[in-house]
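Why predict the complex rather than its parts? Because the way molecules touch one another can change local conformation, and only a joint prediction can capture that. The input here totals 1376 residues.
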Amino acid sequence: MQYFKSDYMEGAHPLILERLSQTNMEKTSGYGTDEYCASARRKIAEACGCPQAEVHFMVGGTQTNATVITAVVRPYEGVIAAVTGHINQHEAGAVEAGGHKVLALPHHEGKLDAAEVDRYVTAFYQDPSWDHMVAPGMVYISHPTEYGTLYTLEELKALSAVCRKHKIPLFLDGARLGYGLAARDTDVTLKDIAALCDIFYIGGTKVGALFGEAVVMPQPGMIRQFDTIIKQRGVLLAKGRLLGLQFDTLFTDGLYVKIARHAIDMAERIVEGLKAYGYTFFIRPQSNQLFVTLENSLFEKLEQRVGFEVWEKRADGTTVVRIATSWATREEDVAELLEELKKK
Amino acid sequence: MQYFKSDYMEGAHPLILERLSQTNMEKTSGYGTDEYCASARRKIAEACGCPQAEVHFMVGGTQTNATVITAVVRPYEGVIAAVTGHINQHEAGAVEAGGHKVLALPHHEGKLDAAEVDRYVTAFYQDPSWDHMVAPGMVYISHPTEYGTLYTLEELKALSAVCRKHKIPLFLDGARLGYGLAARDTDVTLKDIAALCDIFYIGGTKVGALFGEAVVMPQPGMIRQFDTIIKQRGVLLAKGRLLGLQFDTLFTDGLYVKIARHAIDMAERIVEGLKAYGYTFFIRPQSNQLFVTLENSLFEKLEQRVGFEVWEKRADGTTVVRIATSWATREEDVAELLEELKKK
Amino acid sequence: MQYFKSDYMEGAHPLILERLSQTNMEKTSGYGTDEYCASARRKIAEACGCPQAEVHFMVGGTQTNATVITAVVRPYEGVIAAVTGHINQHEAGAVEAGGHKVLALPHHEGKLDAAEVDRYVTAFYQDPSWDHMVAPGMVYISHPTEYGTLYTLEELKALSAVCRKHKIPLFLDGARLGYGLAARDTDVTLKDIAALCDIFYIGGTKVGALFGEAVVMPQPGMIRQFDTIIKQRGVLLAKGRLLGLQFDTLFTDGLYVKIARHAIDMAERIVEGLKAYGYTFFIRPQSNQLFVTLENSLFEKLEQRVGFEVWEKRADGTTVVRIATSWATREEDVAELLEELKKK
Amino acid sequence: MQYFKSDYMEGAHPLILERLSQTNMEKTSGYGTDEYCASARRKIAEACGCPQAEVHFMVGGTQTNATVITAVVRPYEGVIAAVTGHINQHEAGAVEAGGHKVLALPHHEGKLDAAEVDRYVTAFYQDPSWDHMVAPGMVYISHPTEYGTLYTLEELKALSAVCRKHKIPLFLDGARLGYGLAARDTDVTLKDIAALCDIFYIGGTKVGALFGEAVVMPQPGMIRQFDTIIKQRGVLLAKGRLLGLQFDTLFTDGLYVKIARHAIDMAERIVEGLKAYGYTFFIRPQSNQLFVTLENSLFEKLEQRVGFEVWEKRADGTTVVRIATSWATREEDVAELLEELKKK
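Output of the joint prediction:
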């Protein structure tokens, strides 16, 4: 049985483990004040085209989302997100536990539409009761989205323009950013993201690291005492160098995008195979997450043999499943998977 | 110009003011430990048909909603409400500020549908990721709703049954409860509410009091240290007797429903008039809030002369306005209002 | 039996009740947007010597403290207070429920010492771990304090200077401010407070009103969207005019200080009597709260006949009781109290 | 220069790194649902003498403290801790950010005194205003404490008895538990802790792991939906097996205590050396943290050469420094350190 349930089922890229082993007995200061973190920060800032950018490391995506939102948004504000956004669905209410409402807007294959955001914010301030309502204080997007889809550069520019027009910071959840950057048909680069977003993060957990997310603020000083806020939320890693070492490795010689491209290659091979076998995609495949629609009868036969994630049971008698590749997916696993799916 | 914008534009019923004057120089202990509060609690419990019920007083609706929800719901739980529910729209994110997500379901003229709630909760626990999601920990309804509509006894029983089946407390926001109880076509009594809900409140602010909401828990002891929680949220009134005196007055000789009925009478008179003049109701009138659809051109003419609340600007070129009567609405005001609306 | 347990045992000054009765059937807009609130704001701002001051009304002291602190202090900051401060002792953890630590410093008859605050803040930033600790983000004082004591103008200036030096806002809890302003030996005026504090409030609940606290920000715009924050915390009164009417009355013809002075007169009469009878004061009497030390045996005899508040059972076999006068204390009650205490 | 600033300056015990490498490319399910976590849980429960114990893994100490406290304590309750407790001093207000007050009691070399806790709780409920105050809802202790000191079995039994008498859960922060268990003069075993505490954790970050804390509830089911609460706080590690693998390794063949004993041995060697050189200990050394009092002039000479942590600048012209050994401290580092300190 092949497991393609998610992109965080393996450990880390071997170069990372090697680096951890080499440096294991070194003594460094804690909490991200070490030289490895400093080096990783410099490399990330450079890759973003913002040498002055401020970079902080956290361990996982949910904590990064909740900490950034809490730190940026004022008490009376909420955060706009697609209804399918991770913060709205699968973070157990972390944003609300931090005191803020998620203002859910319709999604378009997981994406927010800039014009809809603009209309929402405009209408908000036209509502005679707006000052008894939750003001939009941030726009949250993910790239790739929870459906594996990607913003085009034009779409991202439009969202950024709407946010700047209304003076609302744009926050990009890049938990799977590598797979977005490595995608075949994207025209969005890391530098674009740094130019268009106010704050974003580069996901390590799903792209080659044991764990780790690198938060980037292109304009340094955007958040006062951010490290204290991170500490207060309990997510300032004591041995912070573990984060520095991992990101330093990932941002050396373009490793981050290189290993992400492998996942894209494997995903494409699966897409081609499935198309050939006549499978239907629920969402047009764009990165490393593939959403396939199956008749329930077929689903029941397959689920014993193929390790995919059940995404949605639909009223029309079909099941949507997710197949995710990763930096670690082996060619022989893909071959075996296709073999299994061929049998249907 | 006649003001029908809301049902909290006047002071209090004269008997209440009289009572406050009579007792003004008495000395009593604070925070609701006085004899007037005790008497009001007894009368309310009796009116609810639950002599053992526990009754607490607060000052306003938003604070009551937020305090009850915080006190009842566990950290990982949220509260189901209609998307139009007051807690989801017009309380500035008070529930989220207390740490909990509002789980918004579709509304049906402002009401939740029991079958939909059942399906939602059932589907929630079937979702493979449910333990990373916000669990439904309470069902919130308002009666009358924000649209002035009323649950039938059958609907309320169905909701209560769903809640009990899933062991989720049912909380009824009765900020306008008097107008619901006094409505012409309702079959829901206060005793029904006490039998079917786990916690609810009887609104005073909008029904004859200067301010005040009486929270009723038919099963005493449902919330440990509720007064301390009320104090912590800053909403335990120092001179608590002001609340006791008001509710004691309202629950003497059926004053509460009696004065609410007057609002219903006045509303009916307006409904008849408007129907005769050919106006269209956006929602079928059921209690003291009337929602009228106006062509924008007509709206613009009227808004200078008639004090209603703009509810919604619709894409079809109409405006929905709200006209609210209250215990204090005078017959001559109604006559004058109808006169104005006749002129269109 | 005479009750001197607290200064919030009666209703309101008769002029206030009269005013509420006169205006009872008027219709006004809600939430403090009415003309009575506007008038009260103007009068208060003028009395503060700051015509431009921003004034907001809330219902009670705990909610005012918690709301102001939440609105002003950043997520990683706490609030400095005397260990005896109301927010540290008797508000059921409202400040912490809002997410902030109370940084308790030693008290001096209920007061903070400016030099100690200065040393605390200076030492804080010298601590090598300061960025893992709760930063001082506000200084909270009460005037009169919980012990009825008063800051001298010199002390208040010193505190203000320390706060400004460290760029920390100074917040004065004036729940009993009237009694402080009316005290015999004070050199602190309302204008001094407005000049030296960044935000403060003028207490109505304990000084003649049914309820109500007026928050004053000498520099308008200090808090963005403060009314929305007040709404979110559930403490924006629907019939806001009740607050406007009360403060408008209290700030017409100097009523506020005039009625407070009566409490001071009554307190002085009690002080003189008790001194003549040989009683000992635990704290030098300065305003309307008197703290008397009694041998336990004497206390047990008296407590059946005299309605004071038990403040503290001390290890040395004495009990400290509090006697509070108010604007409503009658001369005959004082006479009777002294008669009772004479008998010991 | 030798660094003895803290016990989290190195990576992980080599066996852990080896295990991570061996299993790196395995695919496992996430969030702690894998077999390595299951195995680690079994071994920990067995080591605690509670086969039925519930075990959860988190990444760091602050997040564990804040998450456990939030999950256990009711909204109106706070947590008793020594004034020197980590949650009261060095977690940036994480407990308060979660809504709860830390009720700080005096410390005795970092420890709480059972009789004082008993008196505090008893006095609390005797205070006439107790229901307007923060109720003690948990007792937090650390073992070893922030001063490296240890509870005796008798002391721990006394605290446990007080907690059970008052029905208050006892929570033990074992961030450095290994060093406590391995100490020379302790009579407290892991089984004692499991028998006497309601919830506690076994620290990995400071005792051989890259990161990780194992929370143990001897009575399973103590907290409903604890994993969801952990997820909500953003501290449920995606690749949970990293925690399972580390604790499985540490709890195989007694590795955890074995490596901790090395730190104790190294600490003892330093203690003996320092005593011989005439240094004075601020606190009697008991585990792996040593607190040495230095004249400021001596301190200034040494700080260039010796990497200790500045603990406290005292008014008497001395500086207290901390020297911490760890599982990773090398004998030659100790020798070099002693050499440096000899020179004074």
